[in-house]
Amino acid sequence: MASVATTPARSGSAVRQGSSKSGRQLKWWQQALYQALCLFIGATVLFPVLWIVSMSLDPRNIARPTELNLIPPGASLDAYRQVLDRPTGNPVTFAELAMNSLRLAGGVALFALLIGVSAAYAFSRFKFPGRQYAMIAVLGITVLPAVATIAPLFALLNGIRITATLLSIALAIAGLLAAGFGLLIIVPAWRAGTAVGSTYLLGGVALLMGLILLVTAASPPANDIFILRNSLLGVGIAMISGALPFAIWNLKGYLDTIPKELEEAAIIDGASANQIFFQIVLPLSTPALAVTGFLSFTAGWTEFFLSWQFLTNPQDFTLAMALYNMTGQYAGSVPWSRFAAFSILVSLPVAIVYLMLQRYIVGGLTLGGVKG
Fold first, then answer.
1. Exposure of 115 by Cβ count < 10 A (0-12 exposed, 13-18 middle, 19+ buried)?
2. Which helix (DSSP H) or strand (DSSP E) does residue 161 occupy?
3. pLDDT for the residue numbered 248
4. What confidence score (pLDDT) does residue 26 get?
5. For residue 41, what pLDDT is reported?
6. Gap between the Cα atoms of 232 and 216, Å rounded
7. Who has the most CB within 10 Å: 78, 98, 165, 244?
8. Whole-angstrom Cα distance, residue 25 to residue 10?
9. Could you say which DSSP state residue 19 is in?
C-alpha cells in the first residue's frame, strides 16, 4: 500500500520540475535556454512601447530621439495636456477627433456584424442556386487590396448628391430597421426565458446603432445638398464594402462548425426558424462575433487612406488623420513628445476593446453546446 501511495507523488513532482509536452523532463540548460528566449522576445516586443512612453514624458521635445530613458529628466504630462486640448493646428479637439473615429469604427463593426452574420448563416445552412459562385465572389473581394478601390469608390460616392431631407429619411429608416432587429433578438428570448448575456449584448448593440442613426437623422447637415463622398457616412459605406465580405467569410467558416443536430433538436421541440437563429446560433457564435467585431473595429479606428482622400472638412477628421498631420517634412520638425503622447492615446481604445472581448476570442462556446 505504501508503494502504491507514493507513486503519484513521484509522477507529480516529475511534472512540476519541468517537462515537455510529451512528458519527458527538460535539462537545466534547456530550461535556461527557453527562458532566455522568452525574455528576449518579451524585451523585443516591449522596447518600442517603453520608448514611446518615455518619449511622451520628455519635456525637451528633442528633434531626433536617439536614447531611451525610462524616466527622462524633468518628466511631465504636458504633452498629454497639449494633445487633449488641440493636437494639430486645425480647430478641432481630441474629443471631437475621437468621436469621429468612434462613430466610423463602431458603425463599420456593427453593420459588418449584423449583416454579415445573417448572410453567413444563409451561406452555411441553405442550399440555393449560385451559392458557390457567390462565395467565390466574396473571397475575391477580401483578397483585393483596399488601396485599389479608392479611385472607383471616390468617383461613385462623389456622384451621389442628395438633399438633406432625403438623407434624414434614409437614416431614420435604417435606424428603425436596426432597432427592430435588436428587439427581435431580445424580446422573444426574454419571453421564452432563454435569454443569456450574449442575447442582451447583441440586441443592445443593434438598439444602440439604431438610436445613433435616429439621432443623426434628427440633426441633418447644414447644406441643402449633401455630398456622400465628403462625409464620415461616405467613408463608412466605403469601408463596409470591404469589411462585410471579410465578416461573411469569417463567420461562415465558424457557423459550419456548429452541429446541425442542435438545430434539428430545437425543431423537434417546436422552435421556429427565428428562435433557432437568435437563441441557439447567435449565442454559440459569440467567439466568432467577438473576433470579427474586434477586427472590424480596429480597421475603422486606424483607417487612413479612405479618410485622407475623401474628407476635406477638419470637423470630420479622424485620429489617424490628425496623427499624420503632426508629421512634418523632416524628422527635426516633428513634435516627438506630443506625437508619442498622441500615439498612446490613439492605441488605448483598441487595447481596451481587446481586453473586454478577450475571453470570447480565446474561448470556444460550441464545445459546451454539444455536451450532456
1. middle
2. strand 161-163
3. 92
4. 79
5. 93
6. 12
7. 244
8. 13
9. B
DSSP one-letter code for 63: S
Domains and CATH numbers, the chain: 98-318+346-371 (1.10.3720.10)
**Is residue 282 left, alpha or beta, with left meaning phi > 0 and alpha meaning psi from -120 to 50?**
alpha
End-to-end CA distance of the chain: 37
Q: What confidence score (pLDDT) does residue 326 get?
A: 83
Three cell numbers, residue 255: 457557423
Total number of residues shown for the chain: 372
Coil, strand, or helix at residue 38? helix
Quote the cell numbers at residue 87: 493636437
Residue type at position 259: P
- CA 317, CA 311: separation in Å to the nearest integer? 7
Write the burial class of residue 245 (CB in 10 Å: 0-12 exposed, 13-18 middle, 19+ buried): buried
Q: Which of 211, 216, 255 is nearest to 116 (CA)?
A: 255
List alpha helices for the chain, DSSP H. Answer: 2-16, 28-56, 78-85, 94-125, 131-142, 150-158, 164-192, 197-218, 232-255, 260-268, 273-276, 282-284, 286-301, 305-310, 319-325, 336-361, 366-369
Residue 111 to residue 296: CA distance in whole angstroms? 10
Helical pair 94-125 and 286-301, crossing angle rounded to 10 deg:
140
Give the alpha-carbon dihedral of 28, 34, 40, 45, to 10 degrees.
Answer: -150
Sequence letter at residue 64: R
**Could you identify the residue written with the cell 519541468?**
18
- The amino acid occupying position 114 is L
The rounded average pLDDT for each run of 10 residues, N- to C-terminus, in the chain (372 residues) is 42 45 72 92 88 83 68 81 82 88 87 88 88 86 82 87 82 86 81 73 79 80 76 88 89 88 87 81 83 87 89 88 79 77 89 77 47 40
